[in-house]
Automatic annotation (TrEMBL):
Single annotated GO MF: mRNA binding
Coiled coil: none
Protein name: Pentatricopeptide repeat
Keywords for this protein: Repeat
Top-level taxonomic group: Eukaryota
Annotated PPR repeat ranges: 9-43, 44-78, 79-113, 114-148, 149-183, 184-218, 219-253, 254-284, 286-320, 321-355, 356-390
InterPro entries found in the cross-reference section: Mito_RNA-Proc/Resp, PPR_rpt
Length: 391
């Protein structure tokens, strides 16, 4: 535009500033603000909102506050959008008390809070474990004739579920239905998660069927939660049935899905089926997948197969963690191969890993089974020297 001799207006500058802020190019965005002011254009609410939103998305909430102070000095009044952006920024970075202080200031400045304001605060309080404060704020919201929506209710349901207080979660869910607010997939996922946590997998499956009849379609998270629930209760066949149903709905299982089913079959003492599912994985296995395989094979007395797999993992230079080594050490000790287990234990420091309490306990147990009392006693003392408490 400048090359063609076409001048900019405030609208043009605001578009450029907004794009730069969305790309986290704050230094350039601020230089554009300087340039527009040099040409006689004063920043408006749109300019300030773009900058504040950019800072908040980049977790630079205090930079946003500084900017607001400067803009206020220039006579720029804050509206509900700017307040909501900063309150949400504070809540997302865990600074809920700062958000509440700003909320009070908002009220004293005569700016009326809306559903977005309350949703940010309720969600922030829930994530901070302040469920009673969140519930109180929602009551305050209703008293002010601001209608709670699906986001408000879902935040509370999720918080109560994660705290293990499923009865309160059910009450909030019932209140939501009473108010004719349709739950979304996130609401159902939270409820299904809560039911599975309490081993009420049949009720969770009924909720899945209900959400489908209501026209709310489950996602991968829904199925992963239910599959995990069935596998944990040793009903792996029903978990596999859900996996097939998931595919029929056009959903592709991810690594978590496969990890859950593989682990389920190992726990059900069906290692061959677990390995077969691993060989048919559509998604990329991660270190958790391999740890499940190693542990499952060792636990089902297929230690030799586990050692072959472990050797292949080392050859492929996979980044192995202490959990992986602990599983292999445990497997070696299980079949009485304590000498090799000790050799692997001693090599940990050369691999940049420190033995943890599980490593020590496994080796001590292995030495005791072989009646190597001196070595067991030596390791026990060494564990204490490293400040590790016995399991």
């Amino acid at each position: 535009m400048e090359i063609c001799g076409i001048g900019h207006d405030l609208y043009t500058y605001n578009i450029v500033i907004n794009c730069l802020c969305r790309c986290s190019r704050f230094v350039i965005a601020l230089s554009v603000v300087g340039k527009m002011m040099k040409f006689g254009f004063e920043p408006d609410v749109v300019t300030v909102s773009s900058l504040i939103n950019g800072f908040c998305q980049g977790n630079r909430v205090f930079d946003a506050i500084d900017l607001v102070s400067k803009m206020e000095e220039m006579g720029c009044k804050l509206d509900v959008v700017i307040y909501n952006t900063i309150i949400n920024g504070f809540c997302k970075t865990g600074l809920v008390n700062n958000a509440l202080v700003l909320f009070e200031r908002m009220e004293s400045d005569g700016v009326r809070a809306d559903a977005i304001t309350y949703n940010s605060l309720v969600t922030g309080l829930c994530y901070s474990g302040r469920r009673s404060d969140a519930a109180r704020l929602m009551r305050d919201m209703v008293m002010r004739d601001i209608v709670p929506n699906v986001i408000t209710f879902t935040a509370l349901i999720d918080a109560f579920v994660k705290a293990g207080n499923f009865l309160e979660a059910e009450k909030v869910y019932e209140e939501m239905i009473r108010r004719c607010i349709d739950p979304d997939v996130f609401t159902y996922n939270s409820m299904i998660h809560g039911l599975c946590m309490h081993d009420q997998v049949d009720e969770a499956k009924q909720l899945l069927d209900l959400m489908v009849t209501k026209g709310c379609f489950p996602d991968v998270v829904t199925y992963n939660t239910l599959i995990n629930g069935f596998c944990k209760t040793k009903r792996v066949a029903e978990g596999t049935k859900l996996f097939r149903e998931m595919s029929q709905r056009g959903l592709v299982g991810d690594t978590i899905t496969y990890n859950t089913i593989i682990q389920g079959y190992f726990q059900a003492s069906r290692p061959d089926t677990a390995q077969e599912i691993f060989s048919r994985m559509d998604s990329r296995p991660n270190i958790r997948t391999y740890s499940i395989l190693l542990y499952g094979l060792c636990n089902n007395w297929r230690v030799e197969k586990a050692l072959v797999l472990f050797e292949n993992m080392q050859k492929r230079e996979m980044e192995l963690d202490i959990t992986t080594y602990n599983i292999v050490i445990h497997g070696m000790c299980k079949i009485g191969n304590v000498e090799d287990a000790w050799e692997l234990f001693c090599s940990l420091s050369f691999k940049g890993l420190e033995p943890d309490v599980v490593s020590y306990t496994t080796m001590i147990s292995g030495f005791c089974r072989k009646r190597h009392w001196d070595k067991a006693d030596f390791l026990y003392r060494k564990m204490q020297e490293h400040g590790l408490l016995p399991l």
